[in-house]
């Protein structure tokens, strides 16, 4: 396994000039040896481009890649000793399941006894033990993809294993199992794993560190907890969470916060750290970010509560999802995940929501003030 240092950029077009010309904007990043990473972001943000630069399928148009301090920028995937699992299964139909799993090892002249041991172990982990002698051609797509995963995992000598949306063809229940399996495998083998997905649940359950990408940029790298509690950028707040973070436009007025569209005329004075207050005052206008989980139902007596119009109250089973707009027809929408206290709410009701608490985040130019 290897520590992977990136200091690169990539443009598919020659002579890139503007940011839009880059599939990957200049990026410096280290994948630590033995870490489990996810690259998470919407379609087209550059996940596959980044992964292919790591594997060596693509040479970045600028910069370098080092594996354990060695410059591998010009090295092929073989020379980098990378295993890559793609979105669709890549297996040999004419071989049995066992032969498919053994192939990457046989190819490298690993002794038979060791091949058997390793194939047995990986097959067991992926619940493929009973089909080792079956021909791969007759298997369903998800079983084939399990073999592809197994072929990635079977080698112990690789620098890293890269997965590019490997569970797309797998049905939801099995997906959940395989994700857990990959995590177990990571704990057992301590492999450097990099996993590309646009599914936040997949990224957050699989990886210790999630790299959130947007338009060619890594906007935040962090644990699931950090991405949830302190999104560094409004994009991360939106993208992570279900539903995502709520945002309200606000201004600093006479030492307090005024929320745009809030016709109650209230000024809010939540406890703020000195440097946060100073940054908001300096900026003048900013955005308030609060997760649906951290909004609570309150009343007028609460000086940190804001009056809202309920537009919808849905019973989701384990919680109530209440959608509301800030008083007086402002189009800022708040979504709140509430308990049974929300059961009596109906569309058209007036209510008070506490927006300010210790979880509330503040953004100037889309960046978290911290
Ligand atoms: N071979 C290529 N030639 C030119 N442009 C490309 C090529 N591959 C990707 N791009 C462009 O580079 C950008 C990043 O693409 P990339 O495939 O890395 O995104 P992605 O995050 O993997 O998306 P998806 O989730 O759809 O797989 C996109 O704008 C895409 O259109
Ligand atoms: Mg992709």
Automatic annotation (TrEMBL):
Keyword Zinc annotated: no
- Name the keywords, alphabetized: ATP-binding, Cell inner membrane, Cell membrane, Membrane, Nucleotide-binding, Transport
> According to its record, what are the GO cellular component terms?
ATP-binding cassette (ABC) transporter complex, substrate-binding subunit-containing
* Domain of life, source organism: Bacteria
Describe the location of the ABC transporter domain by residue ranges.
Answer: 6-240
Gene3D superfamilies cross-referenced by the UniProt entry: Nucleic acid-binding proteins, P-loop containing nucleotide triphosphate hydrolases
A GO term, aspect molecular function: ATP binding
Q: Which PROSITE patterns match?
A: ABC_TRANSPORTER_2
Q: Name one Pfam family in it.
A: ABC_tran
Protein name, UniProt field: Carbohydrate ABC transporter ATP-binding protein (CUT1 family)
């Amino acid at each position: 396994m290897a520590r992977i240092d990136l200091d690169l950029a990539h443009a598919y077009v020659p002579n890139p000039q503007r940011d839009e010309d880059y599939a990957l904007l200049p990026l410096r990043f280290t994948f630590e040896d033995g870490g489990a990473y996810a690259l998470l972001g919407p379609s087209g943000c550059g996940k596959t481009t980044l992964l292919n630069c790591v594997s060596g399928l693509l040479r970045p148009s600028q910069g370098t890649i080092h594996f354990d301090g060695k410059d591998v920028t010009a090295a092929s995937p073989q020379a980098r000793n990378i295993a890559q699992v793609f979105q669709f299964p890549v297996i040999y139909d004419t071989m049995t399941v066992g032969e498919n799993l053994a192939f990457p090892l046989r190819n490298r002249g690993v002794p038979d006894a060791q091949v058997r041991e390793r194939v047995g172990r990986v097959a067991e982990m992926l619940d493929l033990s009973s089909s080792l002698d079956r021909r791969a051609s007759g298997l369903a797509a998800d079983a084939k993809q399990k073999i592809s995963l197994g072929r990635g995992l079977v080698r112990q000598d690789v620098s890293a294993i890269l997965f590019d949306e490997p569970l797309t063809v797998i049905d939801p229940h099995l997906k959940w199992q395989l994700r857990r399996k990959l995590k177990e495998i990571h704990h057992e083998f301590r492999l450097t794993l990099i996993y590309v997905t646009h599914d936040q649940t997949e990224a957050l359950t699989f990886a210790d560190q999630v790299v959130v990408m947007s338009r060619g940029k890594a906007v935040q790298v962090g644990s699931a907890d950090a991405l949830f509690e302190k999104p560094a950028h409004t994009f991360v707040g939106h993208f992570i969470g279900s539903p995502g973070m709520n945002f309200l436009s606000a201004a600093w007025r006479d030492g307090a916060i005024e929320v745009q569209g809030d016709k109650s005329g209230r000024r809010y004075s939540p406890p703020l750290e000195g440097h946060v207050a100073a940054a908001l005052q300096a900026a003048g206008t900013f955005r308030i970010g609060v997760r649906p989980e951290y909004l609570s139902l309150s009343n007028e007596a609460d000086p940190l509560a804001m009056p809202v119009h309920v537009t919808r109250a849905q019973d989701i089973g384990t919680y109530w999802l209440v959608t509301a707009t800030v008083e007086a027809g402002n189009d800022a929408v708040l979504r709140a995940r509430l308990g049974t206290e929300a059961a009596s709410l109906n569309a058209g009701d007036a209510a008070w929501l506490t927006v300010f608490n210790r979880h509330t985040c503040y953004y100037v130019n889309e960046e978290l003030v911290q």
